[in-house]
Write a structure and sequence with these properties.
Structural class: alpha/beta
Number of domains: 1
Strand order of the largest sheet: 1-10-9-6-2-3-5
Bound molecules: 2-phosphoglycolic acid
Oligomer: single chain
Number of strands: 10
CATH class: Alpha Beta
CATH architecture: 3-Layer(aba) Sandwich
Length: 241
């Protein structure tokens, strides 16, 4: 695990965007795993800036998002489809057919999950996966549990996640209770992983991620087993390591 501590959120966002752009330069057919949440917003803004400046070209890039709430339609303002369009896809030259986000509204979610992993496999696997991290150690929506799932699956969101994410909804009650997420195996099979964390609220989770024991009760700790993980932190997120 390589840990890089940046001065602030803006620096972190710039370095993350440079890593993505660099990977696309090396391989213009990159299969890129993407994350939602507040943390990657700055990285997306910087990638849009780079695209507009002619520094990165998404023509042949394929993307797979980590997760989506179950039951939120793609045009729901809190859906991750909506988030990705607003923060990235509407502003770059990615082909719509190359964008993949789990369909949380599918009438057959088991099949959707199975098919999502198949699509990743057919695309050649994820080359670079961007991750955020929950205060409870979740990555994607792989919540702390006695057992974790390998493949993309339907998951019950933890009370902590529902509480933390309720800031985006009008009330706690409106937060979906379930989501579709890539599994731990799907994530761990990515060739490279870049995990982003910013702010004091993530400091304890980062300590456990980089130096805690491996446990399914803290899914991000399993990243210590991956051979190519870079953790990008601002000073606050790094304050306990
Ligand atoms: P955040 O979410 O970037 O909004 O903190 C990260 C996560 O829950 O994975």
């Amino acid at each position: 695990m390589i840990v890089k501590i940046l001065e602030n959120y803006m620096e972190l966002s710039k370095i993350a965007a440079s890593m993505v752009a660099g990977e696309i330069k090396r391989n213009d057919k990159l299969v890129l795993g993407l994350a939602t949440g507040s943390t990657p917003e700055g990285m997306y803004a910087e990638l849009i800036r780079k695209f507009k400046a002619g520094e990165v070209d998404f023509t042949d890039v394929t993307t797979f998002n980590l997760d989506e709430y179950a039951s939120l339609a793609p045009d729901h303002p809190q859906s991750y489809h909506f988030f990705m369009n607003k923060h990235l896809f509407d502003h770059i030259n990615i082909k719509p057919e190359n964008i993949n986000i789990p369909d949380g509204c599918s009438s057959d979610l088991d099949h959707e999950c199975y098919e999502y992993d198949l699509r990743i496999e057919e695309a050649g696997g994820i080359g670079l996966q961007i991750l955020g991290i929950g205060t409870n150690g979740h990555i994607g929506f792989n919540e702390p549990a006695e057992m974790l799932c390998v493949h993309t699956h339907l998951v019950d969101l933890s009370d902590e996640t529902i509480k933390v994410n309720s800031r985006f909804f009008e009330s706690f009650d409106q937060v979906p209770r379930k989501a579709v997420t890539m599994g731990m195996g799907t994530i761990m099979h990515a060739e490279k992983i870049v995990l982003l964390a910013s702010g004091k609220s993530k400091a304890a989770a980062i300590r456990q991620t980089v130096s805690g024991g491996l446990t399914t009760a803290f899914p991000a700790s399993l990243l210590q087993l991956h051979k190519n993980v870079t953790v990008l932190l601002d000073r606050e997120a790094a304050s306990l390591i």
